[in-house]
Amino acid sequence: MSILHDLAATIEARKGADPDSSWTAKLLAKGPEKCAEKFGEEAIEAIIEAVKGDRAKLTSEAADVLYHFLVMLAARDVALNDVLAELAHRQGQSGIAEKAARPKG
Ligand SMILES: N=c1c2ncn([C@@H]3O[C@H](COP(=O)(O)OP(=O)(O)OP(=O)(O)O)[C@@H](O)[C@H]3O)c2ncn1[C@@H]1O[C@H](COP(=O)(O)O)[C@@H](O)[C@H]1O
After folding, report:
1. Does the keyword 4Fe-4S apply (predicted)?
2. ipTM attached to this prediction
């Protein structure tokens, strides 16, 4: 099992846990909108480090992004495996070819 799967399982197990004992439970208790907002904040922090070019800080912020991304998915009951299956489905398909094949309008 990958670290992302382990983390997703931990997050899932925090649903309904005591918000005073777990950051994940606290975040989930605030609802999916707050989880999405927090993900957005973390993404912006990662963007700032990417623009600055500080690789160590970008690495740390990227970890925050991945964690909060998984919390956001869990808040809306979207399984990590479904996201990975979507990525697998896209494998071998060029992004340029996919865009060109989209219906016009
Ligand atoms: N990977 C993480 C992880 N990354 C970041 N965070 C927390 O996310 C929070 C938000 O980080 P910020 O720096 O943005 O916090 P902040 O600036 O105080 O937040 P604001 O008040 O500004 O909104 C911090 O409390 C971090 O500790 C995480 N909390 C938990 N995990 C994982 O989730 C597991 C379960 O954690 P608990 O749910 O707390 O038991 C842990 O064992 C870890 O594996």
Report:
1. no
2. 0.88
